Amino acid sequence: MAESWATFGVDLHLDRSGPGLRRGLTEALREAVRGGRLTPGTRLPSSRSLAADLGVARNTVAEVYADLIAEGWLAARQGSGTRVADRTPAAPERRRAPHPREPARPAYDLAPGTPELASFPRAQWLRAARRALSAAPDQALGYGDPRGRVELRTALAGYLSRARGVHADPDRIVVCAGFLGGLGVLAELLRRRGGDTVAVESYGLPHHRRLLRNAGCRTPPLPFDDRGTLPPDGPADADAVLLTPSHQFPLGLPLPPERRTAVIDRARRAGGLVLEDDYDGEFRYDRQPVGALQGLDPDRVVYLGTASKSLAPALRLGWLVLPPALVEEAMDVMAGRVPGVLDQLTLAAFLSCGDYDRHVRSARLRYRRRRDALVAALAERAPGVRVTGIAAGLHAVLELPPGTERQTVRAAAWHGLAVHGLSMFRHPEASVPARDALVVGYGTPPDHAWAGALDALCRALP
């Protein structure tokens, strides 16, 4: 049997449209290089292999290769075969017009929302992946349940009940592609049920509001005061409300008990839903953990959780704990949206063996030390700056003198620091007075860079 070049792991599509066999093949290869389908350094099949696949004489392919080598399209070297030549032209020198000096690329990232990626437990995750893949039944590699693998849903039900006070049954959990994936599913569910309004907090992440608007939902702001978010004004002014009740983002306030109750009562009266974003529920320092709002009424609250803060955003693993009435509808919406099975099985093994709890405890200690160092540095070098929202989470709010937020963010950039002002998170329609502050994330910098990041921050403050 003739030997195909595909046997050697090379896949190549050629459209021989030119006149004549040799000329057509030459032009097809030349066009593949010119058009960028064959990039510099790409190894081509041997003349014998390509000839066998195309059903032509080996000499024809050898002559085509020789022609293109002579023209500079291909290059051949003893022992390394024939490859696409590096034809990148040297960039011509240009005289640039003078322009204002720009700040350098940030050396430190204090934007909120990302954990310390260097501390991801690679060795433990790899062990969990090996265990999971070895134990996975063959049917796990099929299309499977649109809610996600039962191993992960079962492990999550146990963990969420134990650690967050969530009423979770594996049959009511849906695994999704991170928080945004889950929020997109819920927006579609609401639209299918005839709803188009999700009330959101006066301060929150703008890309959450944007996702909801792109899904066809209105996003009016909820009332807000110095104790945090207030329940909606009327009995039926929103089909759902999106809240961060355990640790309001970004101001860091827990929703007071009487307001938690009022939100649930309002949802019961109006027949609406509460969407609970428990984005950093594991990280509590100076107070007892605030249990999930979902525990007050599992039939009215949808709990959204994610591994993005506790492990890494790149895993794209999140989960919804749904009221029973929404499960079947969610399964219809989830078709084709379930994250990769191998990552699900790995997280299930990681949770079940206790590695997740150990990692969270270690991370909690590390982040608390960073928070304490931040508070101490500000007390010494910027005593006029008040720090709030520090009892939990991965960020703090630094209150600034009125009118200084914008210039402080600019000064931070000149000191090599990426940091966000509070105004970035304010809903454009919110009625609350604007406040000048920085939202400082202390999760992202690796340990060795934390002292430098603190120094740059203190030098940038007014």
Tags for this model:
462 residues; single chain; alpha/beta; 4-stranded antiparallel beta sheet; 13 helices
Estimate what percentage of residues fall within beta strands.
5-15%
Question: What is the helix content?
Answer: 25-40%
Shape: globular
Order of helices and strands: HHHEEEHHEHEHEEEHEEEHHHEEHEEEH
Total count of helical runs of at least 4 residues: 13
Largest sheet: 6 strands, mixed
Stretches with pLDDT under 50, minimum 5 residues? 1-9
The mean pLDDT is 90
List the strand order in the largest sheet.
4-11-10-9-8-5
Could you tell me how far the N terminus lies from the C terminus, measured between alpha carbons in angstroms? 78 Å
The total beta strand count reads: 16
Instruction: Give the helix/strand class.
Output: alpha/beta
Question: Compute the gyration radius: what is it?
Answer: 28 Å
Question: What can you see in these coordinates?
Answer:
The protein has about 450 residues and is of the alpha/beta class. The protein has helices at about 20-35, 45-55, 60-70, 120-135, 150-165, 180-190, 205-215, 255-270, 325-335, 340-350, 355-380, 405-415, 450-460, and strands spanning about 75, 80-85, 110, 175, 200, 225, 230, 240-245, 275, 300-305, 320, 385-390, 395-400, 415-420, 420, 435-440. Helix 4 (about 120-135) packs across helix 10, helix 5 packs across helix 10 (about 340-350) and helix 11 packs parallel to helix 13 (about 450-460). The radius of gyration is 28 Å and the shape is globular. The model is unreliable at about 1-10 (pLDDT under 50).
